[in-house]
Prior knowledge:
Layout: H1 2-10, H2 53-103, E1 110-114, E2 119-124, E3 127-133, E4 138-145, E5 151-153, E6 165-171, E7 177-182, E8 189-192
Antiparallel strand pairs: 1-2, 1-5, 2-3, 4-6, 6-7, 7-8
Amino acid sequence: MRGRFSERAGRKSYSNPLPGAGLPCAAGHSGLGGRPGRRKVSSGAGISPGYSLVELLLVVGISFLVLVVVIPAYKNTNTHRALFMAARQMAQDIRACQQENMCAPGMSVEIVFDVVGDCYYLASGVKTLRKVVLPAEVDLAAVRFSDLGNALSFNSSGVPRPGGGTVTLKSRDESSFYYVIVAPVTGRVRVSPTPPASWYGG
């Protein structure tokens, strides 16, 4: 009896001998002894294959072709815009000169064109009122007035005093032209991409 009691007393009973047994396994654990489970990792997961040399050369070639086409077109657009703006500004200055002579008959204002310097002056007698220099992309190609050469003026009625004429502006690369045309009788000033009909005998 004594031996059995001692044997029973020396035994320890546990209701749950394994802490993880019978419990749901956490992610990444096997559930036995708390050991983490092994995960299978695919060899190509999350790794970019990159680009081949042929693909890179193709992208560079396409980019080069786009630049070759776009850059000249961009330059031509800027040149054409600068030419048009210069012609419009000149037409406005000619109209201002006309208005000055109509509103102040005692004050004679004229515009003198400098073909060599690519500029023109608004002057009253020997006094220069304003100088306008054309943009670098624009060339003052020609001035065609009947009597006063490179000068244009108006009388008190707004009629041009060489009888009208044309100022020709062109781009430096001679790809575009604009004409500032002054009508001989009415003094109407307009800007046109084509020369006046009188140049063709019309």
